[in-house]
Design goal:
326 residues; 2 strands; two-stranded antiparallel ribbon
Length: 326
């Protein structure tokens, strides 16, 4: 199915759904009650359900094969967006941004990402349509990205080079002005750490898009399918970050799962002329890669927790014996 078969009202419906959800999200987060971890989990689930519901709409309008492409592109973007969470953690930690000020930065950062992703997807599809050999370049980019992700767990990063570069070149004050991006100091406007964090997140997303957009294009070449799936996957990032910020670093094997997804997408593009992988098979492979990496991480976390408990035979004799926790 080509993007030309998409009716204008379908794009309009997509826009109405997205704008409505963003408006509801903003209203829900006007109070402190909407910023709790419990609310973040609820919103993460809500964004996932909306994304899957739109996939059901795609199935009703354009059939099962197109819906499978949508689901595959959505799962790839959702999986790779987990890597963004590590970058958010490093950026906020390096700038000592308080938790209650992070949400504003995330909102505008993700909003900007929607624009950049749209541009990258459009240019990527135009390039593939004009020059078939571009798919091999995209495939090579994904294979290199897979190797890079597999080499080192992102939680091991303690600083962000973009933040360091920006702090050396922009007039920055260490003081905050509420949740504003600028502060008036000695008659001059200076950037607060929130602006540095926002710019760093936007630039980081451009780098991520170089990997994630070709990965999505390995599943579908339909503009409507790729962009809508990307948008619904990205829009839940703020809530997902708030929900998992303190636990995502414990998923020690997640980067292997992400690397496997990138490698699969790269090989799929490189071998596309000779090997055809059905969209549903792509979905199964993506779910398997991420599922195994998360499952192994959870298992390792439980094993480490058990090792912190001193065995009973090593406890002092006499008196009440209890397990001593480290």
């Amino acid at each position: 199915m080509s993007s030309g078969q998409i009716a204008p009202w379908e794009w309009g419906l997509f826009g109405v759904v997205v704008v409505s959800m963003i408006f509801i999200d903003l209203l829900a987060h006007r109070t402190k009650r909407g910023e709790t971890k419990k609310a973040a989990y609820a919103w993460s689930i809500a964004w996932i359900l909306v994304g899957l519901a739109f996939g059901f709409f795609v199935w009703l309008r354009h059939g099962g094969n197109t819906a499978q492409e949508y689901l595959g592109a959505y799962l790839i973007e959702k999986s790779l967006s987990l890597d963004n969470l590590f970058v958010f953690l490093v950026i906020f930690a390096s700038l000592s941004v308080p938790e209650n000020k992070q949400r504003r930065v995330l909102f505008w950062g993700i909003f900007g990402a929607l624009v950049f992703r749209g541009l990258f997807i459009f240019l990527g599809l135009e390039a593939i349509e004009r020059w078939n050999w571009v798919v091999y370049i995209f495939g090579a980019i994904l294979l290199v990205a897979a190797w890079r992700v597999a080499r080192r767990h992102p939680s091991e990063e303690s600083d962000n080079k973009v933040v360091d570069w920006l702090e050396k070149r922009l007039p920055v004050t260490s003081e905050y002005e509420g949740k504003q991006f600028f502060k008036h100091v000695d008659g001059k406007w200076q950037a607060t750490p929130l602006l540095i964090a926002l710019i760093a997140i936007e630039l980081s997303d451009v780098a991520f898009a170089i990997d994630s957009v070709p990965a999505a294009l390995s599943v579908s070449h339909n503009l409507f399918v790729v962009y809508t799936s990307n948008v619904f996957a990205i829009l839940g990032l703020r809530a997902l970050y708030i929900a998992l910020a303190k636990t995502v670093h414990e998923l020690r094997y997640l980067h292997w799962g992400l690397a496997a997804v990138l490698a699969f997408a790269g090989l799929k593009m490189v071998l596309s002329e000779w090997v055809h992988v059905a969209p549903l098979v792509s979905v199964a492979i993506i779910v398997t890669c991420i599922g195994i990496s998360v499952g192994l991480s959870v298992r390792a976390r439980k094993r480490d927790a058990l090792r912190k408990v001193v065995p009973r035979e090593e406890q002092p004799r006499g008196g009440r014996q209890e397990e001593i926790h480290a």
